[in-house]
Amino acid sequence: MDRDNQARLILFTRYPEPGRTKTRLIPALGVQGAAALQQRMSETVISQMVQFAANYPVSPEIRYTDGNQQAMEDWLSSDIPCLDQGEGDLGDRLRRAFAQAFAQGARRVVVIGADCPGLGPALFAQAFGALEREDLVLGPAMDGGYYLIGLNQPAPALFADIPWGSEKVLTATLEQAQAMALSTHLLEPLADVDRPEDLRHFDYHPDSQ
Fold it and tell me: Is the residue at 146 inside a domain?
């Protein structure tokens, strides 16, 4: 197997269609501003993925919602494969992404979101390093969710019965992991940018665009 395919780094993001993305930020930024923030944050994370892949044997991948294949390719114009996340809740879509990556021969798979400006190559390296020793790695988000999840084996039950979108996502995931006897490593907690009060975590000035 190609050495590069043993590690897979997958970004979960959304096509920046105004009115359908970052809706909780629309009161602060407006419809166009919220979409522009989504676009910029995704592009920032992708550039970090490209930088990481230049120095680490990993295959980057993008999984999107909204838009379509052509829209994603027109937007990003990158060599990174873009795949539709598919149907279902976040658990269904995560389960599918991990299952397909492992079926294709990956041995360590890390999924990240586009909402966390603190993400970068150092954290990616920590996550993949942790998966050499532990079954599961999680990056806790300060809102009670997680900004990163990685596995070194399929664990579809990990995504069942999780209250997605709530402040209990991380806690419920850790409880599920304990019930499954998955050894777990936690990265440093970071802030997501989902609500107007979160904008202080991201150097974003819509008036200067």
Answer: yes
Number of folded domains in the chain? 1
Residue 26: which H helix or E strand, with range?
helix 26-53
Q: What pLDDT digit, counting tens, does each position of 155-178 carry?
A: 999 999 999 989 999 999 999 999
Spatial CA neighbour of 61 closest among 129, 16, 109: 109
One-letter amino acid for residue 56 of the chain? Y
Distance (Å, whole) CA 128 – CA 141: 18
* The one-letter amino acid at 55: N
| Cα 130 from Cα 122, distance rounded (Å) | 12
Distance CA 129, CA 7 (A): 11
In a domain, 49, yes or no: yes
User: Closest Cα to residue 57, out of 132, 156, 115?
Assistant: 132
* The residue to which tokens 């989902």 are assigned: 194
State the pLDDT confidence band at 35, using cuts at 50, 70 and 90. Answer: confident
Task: Specify if 38 maps to a domain.
Answer: yes
Per the structure, the complete domain to which residue 144 belongs is given by: 3-199
pTM beyond 0.85, yes or no: yes
